[in-house]
Amino acid sequence: MSNVKEELRALISEISEMDDIPDDVSFKDLGIDSMMGVEIVAAIERKYQVKIADAELAQVTTLNSSLELVQKKLAPQAEVA
Question: Alpha-carbon distance 32 to 4, whole Å?
């Protein structure tokens, strides 16, 4: 699972066009606006084949919080596999 964090970092970095995405700095503080946020969520859903509900969007605010959400979503799939 440790690769997921670096995959997310690369994905967010690509969308935001920033070289460095710190673990716990809010996306807002990095200058990532709501449109980029929507792109990030869509990319996460595509890459990991998960659905992020509107109510969960508030959790996608930092790299670490996004990672926690993705890991929570992937955990049930791992149990099934």
Answer: 20
Looking at residue 15, its amino acid is I
Domain ranges of the chain: 2-80
**Residue 63, H or E segment:** helix 63-80
Do 68 and 23 contact (CB within 8 A), yes or no? Answer: no
> In the predicted model, what is the mean pLDDT of residues 36-42?
96
pTM of the model: 0.89
Which fold does the domain 2-80 belong to in CATH?
A: 1.10.1200
Residues 25, 4: Cα–Cα separation, whole Å: 18
Amino acid at 39: E
